[in-house]
Amino acid sequence: MYFFCFGFFSSAYRKFIVVLVGVIVILAAFYRVPGPWFDNHHQYLNGSDQYLRGSDQYLRDRVFSRVLGPKFDNHHQYLNGSDQYLRGSDQYLRGSDQYLRDRVLYDTDLSEYIHAYNYKLPSEYHTDASYKERKILLWYVPPRYVNSTPHLQPLTACPDRNCFTTTNTAYMKDAAAVLFNAQIMQIQKPMPRPKSQQIWILHDTEPEKPDWSHSVTFRTPPWWNLFNWTMFYREDSDIFASYGIVRRKLPSELYNRDLDAIVKAKPKKFVALISHCGTEGKRLEYIQLLQKHIQIDIYGGCGPLKWSRSDDKGFMHMVNSTYKFYLAFENSFCDDYISEKAYRYYKADFILVVRGGGNYTRHIPAGTFIDTRDFKTTKDLADHLRFLDTNHDAYMKMFRKKDLYTSETEALKTVHGNTVVWIHYQFESRALCEVCYRLNHLQKYSKTIERIDKWFDKRLCYFPDDLK
Questions:
Q1: For a 10 Å CB count at each end of the chain, is N or C smaller?
Q2: pLDDT confidence of residue 13
Q3: SS3 182
Q4: Whole-structure pTM value
């Protein structure tokens, strides 16, 4: 019947009908056959979107809680715009605190975190921080570089505008956090905790050496289970208190300098400043082995060359314009310990040679410094240093890469009367800002540490084995 009726139409019309039916069949097939694929693909995209959202949240939490807190409200430039973060790589998205920390520190302007103590009280503190909202950080046992501060001092560099520090123990009952410096803590009996939510923090930035670490009172049973957070140079501490940071330079800091001319103008090669001779890290002994192969100028109490300690600026200017390499050797070998030596001198116009127990490449870009651990013997190191010294192109490759970065630290001055008697270099603001952030989000970070002495003993300092 179909063919009978179809025969009544003209040839042209029949062709039109055939084409039309064919189009309908193709469209139907396209709709019906791949449909489930599109549904699955839509599910896949939704799942991927959900995964990326979860990754974004994971990264946000990591950056906020482990690095710099809510400073980065515009952190999506790091979270959403980077394929290497968000495209499903577990090595970046799971367990990578240090990777995130490095990326943020290398690529971010942290200038607002510098010099937290050197600003006048801004007017917004009077309106933004009421008595109930403010968070007081009390240095109950302050380190030597923290000066007496009887009044509340605002942490002006922190994004949370409601945190204050003081050394006045009269604020004990109102303090949100109480800090105890481990090295000089000699309180035998713990004081009562005035409120259950008050956070007690064990703090130190000095190497955990036997000469003091076994005689302090926080190791005794009355103190074992009283601390909530730790704030050390150790990366397993709750708040990472580094001596400094290395970050990528801003475009405005990339000056058009003649780096070749700077290097070629230097008349000397290797220099070190050493004031403490007999150290657990065998620093002087290592340098003496190195001196069998290369000439090293040694300033300070352990060398023949002298410079006034009061003229630190002049010394740095002299070293910066004279030498191609600076030996920044630690006096102690401790896991994660990288002192101010690396951070203070990194920004200068020479190549650092570092020696210590810290993992330097976790904090300083590889290829911008020399680590003695990369060499089996002091002769191997000396051979490499001679190669860089005599091979201008090889030296300049490292020097140019280093010039893309800079370092930050804070000069914390110990003042007696009106006299500055000591300057301690520590990037304290970032650590205190993280404390401030945690106090403002206490529900996420509330905990108690069991046996603080056992946590402390996990990473004691040790003697080096590279004297060969």
A1: N
A2: 55
A3: coil
A4: 0.71
